Amino acid sequence: MSAGNHHNGRYGASGSSNGHSSSNGHGPDQLSERMSRVRRDLERDVEKLSDDARQVTDWRYLVKRHPYAAAGLAALVGYSLVPGKKQIVTASRSDIESLVRAGKLQIVADGQGAQKAGLLSTSLLAVGTVAARAVMAYAGKRIGEKLDSSGSAFGPAPSE
């Protein structure tokens, strides 16, 4: 490769149309055009990156794109929310007294456990209620659209 052709790359590097040329083969017009192209490419790339980032952080897009993974994740979350079976340990009175004296046993009243389960149950009930209302609203909307398109709940009106 000769030294004069070293910079002939993607955008071309012949002399400028106005008769000016530089030692590397790029005139002011070509340099200005190249800078404009780079700016346009950069703006387009930044806009595409911004759109892609917005899309990736939208949970609805992710559920549509990966429905099985979303269902699996929902099942995993649901499974983790279900409390496990309580472990029942039987011990003699003397064993319990010695563990309490040693500070290795802490006794918690049943009322506190019931309150904790009540909070979880209440939260799940609230989420379930919101979901049921959303389903009912959607069903009502679809039924309303169906009724509007057919003209009546009992089919088309008889012609006279």
TrEMBL record:
Disordered: region residues: 1-39
Biased composition (Low complexity): 14-27
Protein name: DUF3618 domain-containing protein
Organism: Posidoniimonas polymericola
